[in-house]
Amino acid sequence: MSISYNKVMTRIHLATLCANYQFLQKQAAQPIAVIKADAYGHGLKEVAAALVETGAREFAVGTAGEGALLREEFQGPIVALLGTMDKEDCRQVWEHDLIPLIHRPGQCREIAEAGPREGTLRVALKFDTGMSRLGFSPEESAQVVQELEKCPNLKVDMVCSHLACADEPESEEFVRVQASRFRDLCRMIGSQGHRFRECLVNSAGILAYPDLHLDAQRPGIALYGSNPFAGTAWEAKGKGLIPAMETVTTVVAVHELQKGRSISYGRTFTADRDMRVAIVAAGYADNYSRGLSNVGQVLVRGRRASILGRVCMQLTAVDVTAHPGVAPADPVHLLGGEGPEAISPEELASWWGTITYEVFCLLGQNRRVYLRGDESEGQQ
Ligand SMILES: *Cc1c(COP(=O)(O)O)cnc(C)c1O
Predict the structure, then answer these.
(1) Which of 36, 126, 284, 357 is catalytic?
(2) What are phi and psi of 281, to 5 degrees?
(3) What are phi and psi of 305, to 5 degrees?
(4) Cα 172 to Cα 166: distance, rounded to the nearest angstrom
(5) Plot region of 68 (φ>0 → left; ψ -120 to 50 → alpha; else → beta)
(6) Quick check: is 265 catalytic?
(7) Could you tell me if the CB of 219 is within 6 A of ligand 1?
(8) Is 264:246 a contact under the CB 8 Å cutoff?
(9) What confidence tens digit (pLDDT) does each residue in 115-151 have?
């Protein structure tokens, strides 16, 4: 744990994470839990350990470096989603028996040459079926097969692709286009004598497209409790997922703001009546976005308080006119909280102008504390 230079603290409820995993596993039988980017800000090792206890048998990380870190704790299959970029990555995938995604010409040879004389490495092939990010195009598939023939120490374990808009009900047609391209690709690779697992869907794909579950699935955001369909016609599909992250801080000061007075840098808010404000210990240095200025809300004593004026580096002003009794040292929730007023990741993301993925990755960079049972911290 790093030095506590700030007051902002992110709590991770591991039992909730496990419940989300079980929720997903009821629908998709072979989940590869995606814990890239430090488990979306929740902590790679801690999340992996909790999920292993609840039955997880396979993980996907971002980089080979993340894979090496996870290998210290976990003996099963680890997929490295970014594949290999340099010599060090190629060395690490062999040393730690990681499954790198191979997604560009020449990569097979680079990996094969980094290996020992004896032994084989499992690899995954990644195809671009519509995301236009990483992966071989369907036209390159014959070339990949040729390259593999020259690398007898590599064994194709899995063929993958990634859906661009599985979380948009209105984009079902494009999901079907991607799935159909993927099926053709798998058939072609299979016809060349390779035996492998087919893996296409992310969280949204798991929840919405049971017919595309194939041999393995890659849930990410749903594990952390964000419903990929929140606010859409398919919202019910993710009902039951519960956010595992909460972010808290404390009140530093409380004071009056007379009618006509402005508050914070740039004077972007002026009181139109006599108000009371609480100054809260959180700002953009804690990854609490300045974009929340005059838009976001926090939870103080179980009630909502609106942000007034600009979010500063380590301080933010909120309106507590309607909440008598708020005092310095009171806990404040930036994310989560008890009761019906709790701040959901989706709500915070919408004020922030982003998605829950980014909220988790950023708030997760604060000091983290882990709660192992279903214990509630309440208002402490
Ligand atoms: C991040 C990622 C996932 C998980 O996606 P979610 O939308 O978080 O479920 C799956 N596959 C790949 C290749 C990814 O990069």
Answers:
(1) 36
(2) -85, 80
(3) -135, 130
(4) 7
(5) alpha
(6) yes
(7) yes
(8) no
(9) 998 899 999 999 999 999 999 999 999 999 999 999 9
